[in-house]
Amino acid sequence: VQIVESGGGSVQAGGSLKLSCEVSGRVFSRYFMGWFRQAPGSEREFVAVTSWSGASTYYADSVKDRFRASGDYGKDTAYLEMYHLKPEDTGVYYCAATKRFGTPLEQFYEYWGQGTRVTVSA
Fold it and tell me: Is the pLDDT assigned to residue 25 strictly greater than 90?
């Protein structure tokens, strides 16, 4: 099983980035794809989770209306589009897979990527 994130980078406040999460090694059709982030010196926190179709999504209040999670099962890739970025969005972003939609709790996410770093400067 492999989950690989990409698309991180440095951006100024107000800018946007699109993260990708490529999965392989097993059938993920019954999983939902989630995103977490960890800011320097802080614990990892939930950001968003989506069904592969994007019809079902759930966001942390801090990113609601600014981020959009989606998936393309045909490409085995999930996405996190981030708009109107703020310095507090800085951190390492992780993609993870769960069978339990809507949960922000890490223990319900079975598979994790290694993360991609996002830096937002003021």
Answer: no
Count the neighbouring beta carbons within 10 Å of the beta carbon of residue 35. 26
Residue 53 forms beta bridges with which residues? Answer: none
Q: Are strands 91-98 and 109-112 parallel, antiparallel or unpaired?
A: antiparallel
How many other C-beta atoms can be found within 10 angstroms of the C-beta atom of residue 61? Answer: 6
C-alpha to C-alpha distances, 95 to 5, 14, 107, 121, nearest whole angstrom: 7, 23, 14, 23
Query: Distance (Å, rounded) from C-alpha 93 to C-alpha 27?
Result: 23
Which of the four pLDDT bands, split at 50, 70 and 90, describes residue 29?
confident
Contacts of 12 (CB under 8 A, 6+ apart): 120, 121, 122
Model confidence pLDDT, tens digit, residues 78-92: 999 999 999 999 999
Give the closest residue to 15 by CA, choosing from 81, 61, 69, 70: 81
pLDDT score at 27:
78
Structure tokens at 12: 């100024």
